[in-house]
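Anyone opening a protein record will find just a pair of labelled lines. A complete record is shown below as an example:
=====
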Amino acid sequence: MIHHELLTLFNTIQRLEASEEELICTLFKPAFLKKNEFFLQEGKFNNQIAFLRKGMIRYFVYKKGEESTLEFTKEGEFIGEYQSFSNRKQSIQNLQAIEDCELLVISYVDLQHFFDNSKNGNLIGRLIIEHRFNRMISQLLSIYMHTPEERYKYFVANYRDLLQRIPQYLLASYIGVQPQSLSRIRKRIAKEIS
């Protein structure tokens, strides 16, 4: 069943009624992105959010003409530019597939319908947004409080399973260095370990 992971996630947050599960299966529509395709580009309005069933998405902005990676999102998580989505403003972020992706997409209008017609919809929505907010704050604080080497160590410690899935130049962009600097950081860490 295509909605199994999504329903499982929602039911771990709050036990759903059968009618709510049926509504979710109706409102969240399957979609696909090929590697390098965009879910959202800056300057556009984010009119939908998605549950990522398979694949990986990166969030990035242009900073001084260069791409600066903010985040990676993998299967089992939601994607969307929430400021654009909730405030109905143009996005300043880009969301791009770095692998082929399978999604379950819901539009802004359909999400409001879910909130209005589901006993547990608002609670689930709030808890998901709180999770996203906390994650974004942690990343923002890390940019200001940690060196690139500390950011890399944190990434390895917490997201080791993603290291083989993310190209090194994107990982370098995420920790805020050029790819050759990331190579030096990795060599230094390898020497510390051995």
User: Anything to note?
Assistant: The chain is about 50% helix and 25% strand. The two ends are 47 Å apart (CA to CA). Residues 146-194 form one domain. The mean pLDDT is 89.
